[in-house]
UniProtKB/TrEMBL annotation, chain A:
It comes from the Bacteria. The lineage of its organism: Bacteria, Pseudomonadati, Pseudomonadota, Gammaproteobacteria, Pseudomonadales. It comes from Marinobacter lipolyticus SM19. Keywords: FAD, Flavoprotein, Oxidoreductase. Residues 131-226 form the Acyl-CoA oxidase/dehydrogenase middle domain. Residues 56-79 are annotated as: Disordered. PROSITE patterns: ACYL_COA_DH_1. This is Putative acyl-CoA dehydrogenase. Its cofactor is FAD. Residues 242-394 form the Acyl-CoA dehydrogenase/oxidase C-terminal domain. GO terms for molecular function: acyl-CoA dehydrogenase activity; flavin adenine dinucleotide binding. Pfam families: Acyl-CoA_dh_1 (PF00441), Acyl-CoA_dh_M (PF02770). Belongs to the acyl-CoA dehydrogenase family. Gene3D superfamilies: Acyl-CoA dehydrogenase/oxidase, N-terminal domain, Butyryl-CoA Dehydrogenase, subunit A, domain 2, Butyryl-CoA Dehydrogenase, subunit A, domain 3.
UniProtKB/TrEMBL annotation, chain B:
SUPFAM superfamilies: Acyl-CoA dehydrogenase C-terminal domain-like, Acyl-CoA dehydrogenase NM domain-like. Its cofactor is FAD. GO terms for molecular function: acyl-CoA dehydrogenase activity; flavin adenine dinucleotide binding. PANTHER family: ACYL-COA DEHYDROGENASE, ISOVALERYL-COA DEHYDROGENASE, MITOCHONDRIAL-RELATED. This is Acyl-CoA dehydrogenase. The keyword RNA-binding does not apply. InterPro entries: Acyl-CoA_DH_CS (IPR006089), Acyl-CoA_Oxase/DH_mid-dom (IPR006091), Acyl-CoA_Oxase/DH_mid-dom_sf (IPR046373), AcylCo_DH-like_C (IPR036250), AcylCo_DH/oxidase_C (IPR009075), AcylCoA_DH/ox_N (IPR013786), AcylCoA_DH/ox_N_sf (IPR037069), AcylCoA_DH/oxidase_NM_dom_sf (IPR009100). Residues 303-427 form the Acyl-CoA dehydrogenase/oxidase C-terminal domain. It comes from Marinobacter lipolyticus SM19.
Length: 402, 434
């Protein structure tokens, strides 16, 4: 048994930490204020990052290569891409969540491609910067209820519908769109399609103004008779009741631990900064057996740290299971649920503990408290995670436990 | 407190209600008394202490178990030995502890056959190095945590009683001098190992294990101990006690054998852990020899407490897992408004959270233990694990009862006992050492 980060990931963690510290932190407040301004610093950095990724044996710190490792071979215990990606994103989000989401070619849309694409598609589309378009005005967590359709027409599909909350939807080179081949056939008919930027019929309607992660653009996109080549349907075009929707959903088993890692990163940033501020105020934060005579802030910070550690270890467990080809749906949701809520709670409490200093814009604490909220919402809300966990624990179908 | 007329009247009524004449004239239903005596029948509790430990003339040199080497990769799989121990202790917990738990709680006593069944498995052998008759080759806090987890899944009160001797053996292996190890450890490898315990807690609010009121003074021949300890599991049955006391301003542990003059114990029943027979221990001018001081220069009280915290986390995790394993079938079978209550999100989400927090506790405890096992620093990790377990164990206990509703409140189901037992995770320091 070993619950430490393996040494082989030290370089990638160090690299991501340097990026977070030297690239993200200095421009963090600037792009929080200048919402929708393109962080041009990221272009140069993205090329460097591509280079880093090429050089790293398991790929770099981004989510772009996340996926179907889990070759459950005879080579014993593996620590692979899933764990590495969690670690990388944790560090990047220690720097800035919004900027981490805006790194070209490293987004979660790419992990959707990596998860369900066939070999040909992987070669053709693997290096495209792809955003993910699932949510609709009338369908959020209930992704089986989406109304966007894809109709067969010769060697194309024609896509019609409206998508919202598309992270990097304007900046990315392509959008992975979830649409139904046949709305009468339920969730099995939902497939994902890669729509490249500039395809006629695809329009970015507006960019949202948000509570947090303002450096990341969140687009609303309209598809009107948008023609997409047939070979851009990711995975199997057959409508199979057995594995259709499940196939689309399996992306989440790999991406949820990564989003959990993001929550851990921003929470750790807040906790570290708060410790500095509180220690400067003369409080002893050394680890002692908890007594009820120690100061309230000491106990609170230790408890927050324990919660953060729990989230971190649950997340590493989920990633480790994915790396070893073990079914991890329940554990991925446990990690996301725990990290999402404690990440948010920690950043909010840190603002509170630092008082008006924490609430003001001279510190980044108030920003982190705004940024963290989305991490308990996207890639499956807290409530959706609890639902998934409960269904697994109780052996219930989605019809029984709604 | 001043008494007013209503208070006086109530007090008189109370005394009347307790009057045995009521019973003599058959004015009270007899049923309420039979229940208590019924449980005593066929119940054999472990015998009182009385074993002697002979000084050994040719004692072996001090033995410290080496740490294991840290694996290169993150890995949550148990090794073959750990899996084997977990499997056999799970069987013991399921077949022996769980069936005995309710009665042992009611009787407030550790049944002798449970103690014997555990001794048969040779639990204490895992705490003792081969030189002294045991089977331990390396330090193994992870295995200790796994053992506590399994036993406490059966019952926490029984588990802590069974683990007290194991913990004393662990502590003497970890901290004892060569003389102390030679004198005490072989006994733990015999067919009938001694009963032993660790006394740290003291009966006062805001207790801090780093600031002990129990005092040790140096004397011409050794030390003199004065003070009070409470919540001492198996305190009356133990042949051997490790007692924490302040010596020259620093906390230390003293090995005290039962029957030493000046030791007195009174039963001190608690909210839970009743099978472990907690007592209050009074030490009045207890004289012990110079070699009763546990360990020498390498003794680290903080690490001693940390290793105790790890085992307590193991107990918390085991009982929390028991709650989870119990509420799942219960909520699936319990029907209200025409369907299982687990079809409701408000119920189902409580169960999800129960699982999340039980695993949170487990991950923190495992990490701290695996660091201890591989001789890495683990003070921070053990502190955080203990804090989280103190916080979450009770949350799980109270939600376990809540999920069963009224059925959770009655003794027909074990969750009310688990509720009482889980409260101890945050209140107790003594009795355990990984």
């Amino acid at each position: 048994m070993n619950l430490e980060i393996p040494k082989k990931f030290s370089p990638i963690v160090h690299q991501a930490r340097q990026v977070a510290q030297e690239v993200f932190r200095p421009i963090s407040r600037k792009y929080d204020r200048a919402e929708h301004a393109y962080p041009k610093e990221l272009d140069m950095f993205a090329s460097i990052m591509d280079g880093m990724n090429e050089g790293a044996p398991d790929g770099g710190a981004g989510a772009g290569k996340l996926a179907r490792s889990g070759g459950n071979g005879n080579d014993g215990n593996r620590n692979g891409t899933n764990m590495k990606t969690v670690l990388g994103l944790t560090e990047l989000c220690w720097g800035d969540v919004g900027l981490a989401l805006s790194i070209p070619r490293q987004g979660l849309g790419n992990s959707a491609i990596a998860a369900v694409a066939n070999e040909e598609q992987l070669n053709r589309l693997g290096d495209t910067w792809a955003a993910m378009a699932i949510t609709e005005p009338g369908a959020g967590s209930d992704s089986a209820a989406i109304r966007t359709t894809a109709t067969e027409s010769g060697d194309h599909y024609i896509i019609n519908g409206e998508k919202i909350y598309v992270t990097a939807g304007e900046r990315a080179n392509a959008v992975v769109v979830w649409a139904s081949l046949d709305r009468n056939k339920g969730r099995a008919a939902i497939k994902s399609f890669v729509v490249e930027k500039g395809t006629p019929g695809m329009t970015v309607e507006r960019l949202e103004k948000k509570l947090g992660i303002r450096a990341s653009d969140t687009a609303a996109i309209r598809f009107e008779n948008c023609r997409v080549p047939k070979e851009n349907l990711l995975g199997d075009p057959e409508i199979s009741v057995d594995k259709g929707f499940a196939g689309a959903m399996q992306t989440f088993d790999n991406t949820r631990p990564v989003v959990a890692g993001m929550a851990i990163g921003v929470a750790r940033a807040a906790l570290e900064r708060t410790r500095e501020i509180v220690e400067r105020a003369g409080i002893d934060l050394s680890y002692q057996p908890q007594t009820w005579t120690q100061s309230a802030v000491t106990r609170e910070l230790h408890l927050l740290e324990a919660e953060l550690e729990a989230a971190r270890l649950l997340t590493l467990r989920a990633a480790w299971m994915a790396d070893n080809g073990l079914p991890n749906s329940k554990e991925a949701s446990m990690a996301k649920a725990k990290a999402g809520r404690v990440g948010n709670a920690i950043t909010l409490r840190c603002v509170e503990l630092c008082g008006s200093l924490g609430y003001g814009e001279t510190e980044l604490l108030e920003k982190w408290a705004r940024d963290s909220k989305i991490l308990d919402i996207f890639e499956g809300t807290q409530q959706i995670q609890l639902l998934i966990i409960a269904r697994r624990l109780l052996g219930k179908s989605s019809a029984e436990l709604k | 407190m001043t008494r007013d007329p209503i208070g006086l009247a109530l007090s008189m009524m109370n005394r009347l209600a307790a009057n045995p004449l009521l019973d003599r004239f058959g004015l009270r239903t007899a049923t309420e008394r039979t229940a208590y005596h019924g449980t005593r029948v066929g119940f054999r509790t472990i015998a009182l202490a009385g074993r002697e430990f002979k000084r050994v003339a040719n004692w072996l040199p001090q033995k410290r178990l080496p740490g294991k080497s840290a694996p290169a990769l993150f890995d949550l799989t148990l090794d073959d030995d750990q899996q084997m121990i977990v499997d056999s202790l799970h069987r013991l917990a399921r077949d022996t502890l769980r069936p005995a738990a309710a009665e042992a709680d009611e009787a407030g006593a550790l049944p002798a056959d449970v103690f014997d069944a555990t001794a048969e498995l040779g639990l204490t052998l895992y705490a003792v190095p081969a030189e002294f008759g045991g089977v331990a080759e390396t330090r193994s806090p992870v295995t200790s945590v796994l053992i506590a987890e399994q036993l406490a899944w059966g019952d926490m009160g029984l588990a802590i009683a069974l683990l007290a001797p194991f913990s004393v053996a662990q502590a003497i292996t970890q901290w004892g001098t060569g003389e102390q190890q030679s004198r005490y450890l072989p006994a733990f490898c015999e067919e009938h190992p001694p009963v032993a315990t660790i006394a740290i807690d003291e009966p006062r609010a805001l207790f801090d294990p780093l600031n002990l009121s129990t005092i040790a003074e140096s004397t011409a021949n050794g030390y003199r101990l004065n003070g009070r300890k409470n919540g001492v599991v198996l305190g009356a049955q133990s042949d051997l006690l490790l007692v924490a006391a302040t010596l020259n301003g620093r906390p230390r542990l003293f090995i005290v054998e039962s029957g030493t003059d000046g030791m007195d114990h009174t039963a001190d029943p608690t909210m839970g852990l009743r099978a472990a027979q907690p007592v209050t221990l009074t030490l009045s001018n207890v004289e012990v020899s110079a070699d009763a001081l546990l360990g020498d220069d390498d003794f680290d009280y903080q690490a001693f407490l940390n290793l105790g915290a790890l085992l307590r986390c193991g107990l918390a995790i085991g009982t929390s897992q028991a709650v989870l394993d119990y509420v799942i079938p219960y909520c699936n079978e319990r029907v209200a408004f025409g369907e299982p209550i687990s079809n409701r999100q408000s119920v189902a989400f409580m169960i999800s959270n129960l699982a999340i927090e039980a695993d949170s506790m487990r991950m923190l405890a495992w990490r701290a233990a695996s660091r201890a096992e591989t001789e890495q620093s683990f003070h921070r990790e053990a502190s955080l694990a203990r804090l989280l377990c103190s916080e979450k164990a009770m949350e799980i206990g109270t939600n376990g009862v809540q999920l069963l509703g009224g059925h959770g409140f009655v003794k027909e189901h074990p969750v009310e006992r688990w509720y009482r037992d889980l409260r101890s995770v945050a209140t107790h320091t003594g009795g355990v050492h990984a």
